[in-house]
C-alpha cells in the first residue's frame, strides 16, 4: 500500500531480505546482514536485525506497510550530494562536438557549455524551471535516490539565481525526495565580465540577496583554471560562510590550482571532482575533515581519467559518490555511479554502497542517520531485485530498484 508523505506512516516492516545494508563499518566498507528485516514507526527506524527477531516484536499483521523482500536486497536510500539538476535547454550537440575533439574547457571559453544553459534558464518561466526539476526528481527517485543536493549556477545574476532557488524550493517541497539547495552563483563568469568583477558582484550583490531569501544551505564555487582562482574562490566561500552558508567546492577537475587548500581553509563540507588531486592535496583534505566527493560519471562522459579513490580508501578514508547530473553529464542513476566507481576507480561494491549512502550524507553534513538503516535513522530505503548488495555495482543493464521507501512510505514501486 502506498501513502502520500503527508499521511502518518504508522508501522512499516521490510522483512526476509536476503541481504540488508545497515551502515558503515569501522573501515571503509559497510555492515551487511543476511536474512534480515527492519521496522520503522512514523518514518523512523526502530529495529534492525534477523527477520525472526524483528517480526517477533513488530509482526507483519500489525504493519500499515509490509514489504516481503525475499530474495531481494535492502539498502539505505541513496543520497546524491552533487547535482546541477535544475536547468533548461539541450546541449546534446556539445556531446557530439566533444566526440569530434572539442574539449569541455574550449566549449566554455567560446561562450558555450554552462553559458548556453544560462541563456536557456534566463528565458525559462518559473513554472518551466520547477517542472523540469520535478521530472528529474521523479527519475532519480525511480533509481533509488531519496535525498539530493541541487545547485543553482545557471543564472549568474541576482534575479535568476534567486529564481533558481525558488524553483528548487518549489519542486523540492512538493516531492518525496528531500532536496538540499546550494547557491552556486560562482559557477562560471558571465559573458562581458571578468572573473574579478564578477567575484565582487557575487560577494556584494548575490550573496546578501540569497541569504535574505533564506533557501540555500550551501555555497559552492567552480575553482578551476580559466574560471575562478583559488583566491577568488576563497573570498566567495568566506563571504557565503559569513551569511550562514556552509562551503563546498569544485576542485581539481581539470587542473589543481589550490582548490583543496581553499577547502581546508574555509572548512568546506566537501571538495568535489578531485580528478587531479595529488597526495598532498589528499592529505590536506583528510586532515581538515573535508569529505571527498567523486563523480565518476563526469570522467566517463568526458573520456577523462578517473579520480584516485583508492588513494583515499587505502589510507582508511571514505569516499562519497555523486551523479553530478547536469547537461554535460546526463546521469540520474546512483546505481550506474556505483558501477562506474567499481569499474573505473576500483571501489569494491560495498565501498561504493557506502559512497552512495552514508558517506554521501556526510558530504551534506547530514547527521540524523540519513544514509543508514539503524535505530533512529529516517526510514529511507531501497529494495533491489537482486540477491546480494554487490549486484548494485555488478549489474549495469536495467534499473535494479523494485521499491523505494521515503520516511517509511512507499514512494515508488
Ligand atoms: N564543472 C563545473 N560544473 C559542472 C558542469 C556544469 C555544466 O557543464 O553545465 C560539473 O560539476 O561537472
Ligand atoms: Zn558540479
From TrEMBL:
InterPro entries: Amidohydro-rel, HutI, Metal-dep_hydrolase_composite, Metal_Hydrolase. GO terms for cellular component: cytoplasm. It holds the Pfam family Amidohydro_1. It catalyses: 4-imidazolone-5-propanoate + H2O = N-formimidoyl-L-glutamate. Residues 73-409 form the Amidohydrolase-related domain. Pathway: Amino-acid degradation; L-histidine degradation into L-glutamate; N-formimidoyl-L-glutamate from L-histidine: step 3/3. GO terms for biological process: L-histidine catabolic process to glutamate and formamide; L-histidine catabolic process to glutamate and formate. Binds 1 zinc or iron ion per subunit. CDD domains: Imidazolone-5PH. N-formimidoyl-L-glutamate binds at residues 154, 326. Its cofactor is Zn(2+); Fe(3+). One of its GO terms (molecular function) is imidazolonepropionase activity. It is found in: Cytoplasm. This is Imidazolonepropionase. The gene is hutI.
Amino acid at each position: 500500500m502506498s501513502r502520500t508523505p503527508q499521511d502518518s506512516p504508522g508501522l512499516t516492516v521490510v522483512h526476509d531480505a536476503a541481504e540488508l545494508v545497515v551502515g558503515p563499518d569501522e573501515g571503509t566498507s559497510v555492515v551487511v546482514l543476511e536474512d534480515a528485516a527492519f521496522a520503522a514507526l512514523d518514518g523512523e527506524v526502530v529495529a534492525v536485525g534477523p527477520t525472526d527477531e524483528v517480526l517477533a516484536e513488530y509482526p507483519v499483521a500489525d504493519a500499515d506497510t509490509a514489504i516481503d523482500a525475499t530474495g531481494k536486497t535492502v539498502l539505505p536510500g541513496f543520497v546524491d550530494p552533487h547535482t546541477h539538476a535544475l536547468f533548461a535547454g539541450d546541449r546534446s550537440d556539445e556531446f557530439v562536438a566533444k566526440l569530434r575533439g572539442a574539449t569541455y574547457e574550449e566549449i566554455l571559453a567560446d561562450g558555450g557549455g554552462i553559458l548556453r544553459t544560462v541563456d536557456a534558464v534566463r528565458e525559462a518561466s518559473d513554472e518551466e524551471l520547477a517542472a523540469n526539476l520535478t521530472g528529474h526528481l521523479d527519475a532519480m527517485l525511480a533509481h533509488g535516490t531519496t535525498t539530493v543536493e541541487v545547485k543553482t549556477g545557471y543564472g549568474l545574476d541576482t534575479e535568476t539565481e534567486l529564481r533558481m532557488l525558488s524553483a528548487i524550493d518549489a519542486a523540492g517541497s512538493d516531492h518525496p525526495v528531500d532536496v538540499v539547495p546550494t547557491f552556486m552563483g560562482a559557477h562560471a563568469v558571465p559573458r562581458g565580465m571578468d572573473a574579478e568583477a564578477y567575484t565582487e558582484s557575487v560577494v556584494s550583490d548575490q550573496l546578501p540577496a540569497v541569504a535574505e531569501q533564506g533557501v540555500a544551505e550551501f555555497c559552492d564555487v567552480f575553482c578551476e583554471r580559466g574560471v575562478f582562482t583559488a583566491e577568488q574562490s576563497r573570498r566567495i566561500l568566506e563571504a557565503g560562510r559569513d551569511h550562514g552558508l556552509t562551503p563546498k567546492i569544485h576542485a581539481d577537475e581539470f587542473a589543481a590550482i589550490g582548490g583543496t587548500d581553499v577547502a581546508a581553509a574555509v572548512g568546506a563540507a566537501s571538495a568535489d571532482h578531485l580528478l587531479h588531486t595529488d597526495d598532498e592535496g589528499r592529505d590536506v583534505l583528510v586532515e581538515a575533515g573535508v569529505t571527498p566527493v567523486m563523480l565518476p560519471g563526469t570522467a566517463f562522459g568526458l573520456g577523462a581519467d578517473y579520480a584516485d579513490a583508492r588513494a583515499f580508501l587505502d589510507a582508511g578514508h571514505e569516499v562519497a559518490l555523486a551523479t553530478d547530473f547536469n547537461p554535460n553529464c546526463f546521469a540520474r542513476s546512483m546505481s550506474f555511479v556505483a558501477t562506474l566507481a567499481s569499474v573505473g576507480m576500483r571501489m569494491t561494491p560495498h565501498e561504493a554502497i557506502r559512497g552512495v549512502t552514508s558517506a554521501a550524507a556526510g558530504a551534506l553534513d547530514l547527521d540524523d542517520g540519513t544514509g543508514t538503516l539503524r535505530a533512529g535513522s529516517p526510514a529511507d530505503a531501497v529494495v533491489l531485485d537482486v540477491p546480494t548488495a554487490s549486484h548494485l555495482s555488478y549489474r549495469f543493464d536495467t534499473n535494479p530498484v523494485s521499491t523505494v521507501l521515503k520516511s517509511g512510505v512507499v514512494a515508488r514501486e
